[in-house]
Amino acid sequence: MIDALITSKTRLKLLLKFFLNPANTSYLRGLATEFSESTNSVRVELNRLEQAQMLESFFEGNKKFFKVNTSHPLFVDIQAIIKKYIGIDTIIENVLNRLGNLQEVYLIGDLALGKETDKIELILVGDIDLVYLDQLILKMENTIEKSISYTRVDEVDGKDSSNMLKIWSVGSR
What we know:
The protein is 41% helix and 25% strand. The chain starts with a helix and ends with a strand. It has helices spanning 2-5, 9-20, 28-35, 39-51, 75-86, 88-94, 130-144, and strands at residues 26-27, 55-60, 63-68, 101-108, 119-127, 147-153, 165-169. The strands form 2 sheets. The chain has a 4-stranded mixed β-sheet with strand order 6-5-4-7, covered by helices on one side. A 3-stranded antiparallel β-sheet has the order 1-3-2. Strand 5 (119-127), helix 7 (130-144) and strand 6 (147-153) form a beta-alpha-beta unit.
């Protein structure tokens, strides 16, 4: 559905990369390799997003890195659209808010890195009814047309959280 609004596949990939996880940074050649696209097509879209002040750039050595501008007036709205596009909003609304003693939820895997995928991988922190969760997830997979996998843990080790994106916590209900 978002493909009709954003006709550039490269632009959509960049929006996923940077707006889903604001901690993501990358440079032109790295993005071109990751997206399997030409550096020219990635450069054009990076320049457009930077000119619109949606992305910021900085240099490390001779490489120009890009990151999302979280102070852009449309940042929250675009991030919400991206979450809706991949189905995270539906999971939060229909699954996570219905579970008992859930403390936090982290997105891991390719989506946490801003890569487009048909698989949503989650880490659930807390004591929850896994049988009920499995029933809810089956319904959600059909609704959002993506597979959902999860790991339940009692707590998250801070050392291992660098590739994890917190998408929900008790205070966000």
